[in-house]
Structure formats: C-alpha cells, structure tokens
Automatic annotation (TrEMBL):
Domain of life: Bacteria
Alphabetically ordered keywords of this record: Membrane, Signal, Transmembrane, Transmembrane helix
KW Nuclease (keyword) present: no
InterPro entries: Put_HupE_UreJ
Chain ranges passing through the membrane: 154-172, 179-201, 207-224, 236-255, 267-292
Protein name listed in UniProt: HupE/UreJ family protein
Phylogenetic lineage: Bacteria, Pseudomonadati, Myxococcota, Polyangia, Polyangiales
Length: 332
C-alpha cells in the first residue's frame, strides 16, 4: 500500500467510526419475536404465573408449552410449580435452535429480583442459578462464566463507555499515568455500581446517561486543548469523578439484565471483572494502533485529532438527545 493510500485510510477512520455509531433506522425485514414471562405468585413459594406471547399465529397455536423447564418444575395450567426448591436449573427452548426467532424471557420473584434475557436460535437456553452454599467456589462456575461474558459484552457494545475509554487512552500520556487513571476509573465505577445494585444509591437514569455523554465531550475537549489543565496534571482525579457516573450507567444495564436471586455478590463481582477485561482490551488495541500508525508514517497526531473530533461530535449529539429526554420525560 502506498503512503498516499495510508494517509487516505487514516483520514477515513474517524468518518467510518461516526457512521458506524450513528443511529440507523430499523431494518424493514421483521423477524418473529415472542416473550415468555414467569412471575412468582404472592404467598406461594416456587409457584409462577406463566404468560406466553408471540407475534406469529403459528407460534401461538403450535407451542402450547414453549419451554422445557427444570425437572423439579411441573406445569399446572397457566402456572409453573417448582416447589420449595424454587425455579432452579436450565430453561430450554429446543424448538428455537437454528431459527431466526428471538424470545425475551423475563423471570420475576416476589423478593423483587428480576432476570431478563433474550434467547435466540444460537443460544436457546438459560441457566437459572440455585447453587447451594455447600458447593463452594467450584459451584459458582456458571455465574463466573455468564456474568464475566456479560461484562465484556457490555463494555464492547456500550458505545458511550467505549468512547470514554478510547478518549481517556488518547488523553493520558505515559504508561504509569494511564494505569493510574484507569485504576481510579475502575475503583470509582465499582463503588457506584455496587451501591446502586444493593439499593444504597438511586438516581434517575436519564440525567445519568446525559452526564455520561457530557463526560465524553469533556475528555475529547481535553484531548485537543493546547494548554495545560487539571485533566492532564491529575488525570486520576478526573477519571475517578467520571467513574462514579459511569458506574451508575453500568448498574442500570446490570439491573435490566437481572441478577441471580441468591448470588448477587458473585454476579456483581464477575460482571465487574468482565467490564475490566473489556476496558483493558480496548486500551491495548488503541495503544497498538497508535504504534502501528507511527511505524507506517501515517501522521498519528492528525489521525488522533480526526478521531477525537468524530467521537466528540457523536458524544455531543448524544448529550443533546439525552438532555432533551431528561427534560421532557415522564414526571417533568
């Protein structure tokens, strides 16, 4: 590849990033979708009211029993009776495998715990955890795997958190300073994530999401600021403050996903571990691309500036959109 081609590629990267992250209209081809909800009945441990809804009349008529439940659970009309042991085991939708249908599975317990998953043809089953304390650490393996994966998925698909990590990596110079800033961010978002999950701290989601978007704008602004600033002198202090906000965003997503009723601390811990793995992977990729750009004589400073403008523009759009949503939402 010629040097001119490399330069063109470098300048196209910010545009490609902006296009890929921009909101797009829904595809015109509508796939079948369905929902299965299980709500624990008041005053009856282990007994759940089952509701099955499907967009396709074929699914509604042919699947009177849409799922295979754990052996201890028995169907009783519109109810699922799992006895004193509760709903524990694997819920499977064998008919779903290989199809393009998606099924949202929602389980709600009387305690207020809630578990939400979308099952697809490539992943048609869901483990519902009921690991006894006598099983020890080895018994927690399903939670370790599942919630670590969810944490990694969240950081890689949560574009606002992803852009903040990229902007932070571009802002902070020096390995030790970057490690310190990332550590402060980790400690901060771990604190608010735990406080929100355990109900010790509650804030409405729209203002939090707007503040997260604004934090990306600010860090992008610091990346192109020619003069010295607090963010450059003490990046750990700035990342700690923003980490508190991002932790609340993580908590909102985790609570939407749901936590296993009897193993909240373990699920919280390994979700956080997954988030950290995702963050470190993103940082390593950004550093590697920067070094590659330097070796290829691609003028990394110009590439970085274009990338920062693209990220800042996208975050500015999110900020306006979220501020309007916060100001015009219900109860305002």
């Amino acid at each position: 590849m010629t040097r001119l081609s490399l330069h063109r590629l470098a300048w196209s990267l910010p545009l490609l990033l902006a296009v890929s992250l921009a909101p797009t209209p829904a595809a015109g081809h509508e796939l079948n979708s369905a929902s299965l909800s299980l709500t624990e009945v008041e005053g009856q441990d282990g007994r759940f009211l089952m509701r099955w809804e499907a967009s396709s009349s074929t699914l509604r008529s042919e699947l009177a029993t849409p799922a295979v439940f754990p052996p201890a659970c028995k169907l009783d009309g519109a109810f699922l009776d799992c006895g004193d042991a509760g709903l524990v085991g694997t819920i499977e939708l064998p008919w779903l495998e290989g199809t393009e249908t998606s099924v949202m599975l929602v389980i709600e317990w009387r305690s207020g715990s809630r578990l939400v998953r979308v099952l697809t043809g490539s992943d048609p089953s869901l483990p519902v955890y009921g690991i006894p304390s006598s099983a020890g650490l080895r018994g927690l393996r399903p939670i370790v795997v599942d919630y670590t994966r969810l944490g990694v998925d969240h950081i890689l698909t949560g574009f606002d958190h992803l852009l903040f990590v990229v902007a932070l990596t571009l802002l902070v110079r020096g390995g030790r300073r970057l490690i310190g800033a990332v550590t402060a961010f980790t400690v901060a978002h771990s604190l608010t994530l735990a406080c929100a999950v355990f109900g010790w701290l509650t804030l409405p989601a729209p203002p939090v999401e707007a503040a997260i978007a604004l934090s990306i704008v600010l860090v992008c602004g610091e990346c192109i600021r020619p003069t010295d600033s607090l963010a450059r002198r003490a990046p750990w202090a700035v990342t700690f403050a923003f980490g508190l906000l991002h932790g609340l965003g993580f908590a909102s997503s985790l609570l939407d996903i749901g936590l296993p009723e009897r193993h909240v601390p373990a699920a919280l811990l390994f979700f956080n571990v997954g988030v950290e793995i995702g963050q470190l992977g993103v940082i390593a990729l950004v550093v590697a691309l920067h070094l590659l750009a330097e070796r290829a004589s691609m003028q990394p400073a110009k590439v970085q500036r274009g990338l920062v403008y693209a990220m800042g523009g996208m975050a500015g759009y999110w900020s306006i959109e979220r501020i309007v949503a916060a100001l015009t939402g219900p109860g305002v």
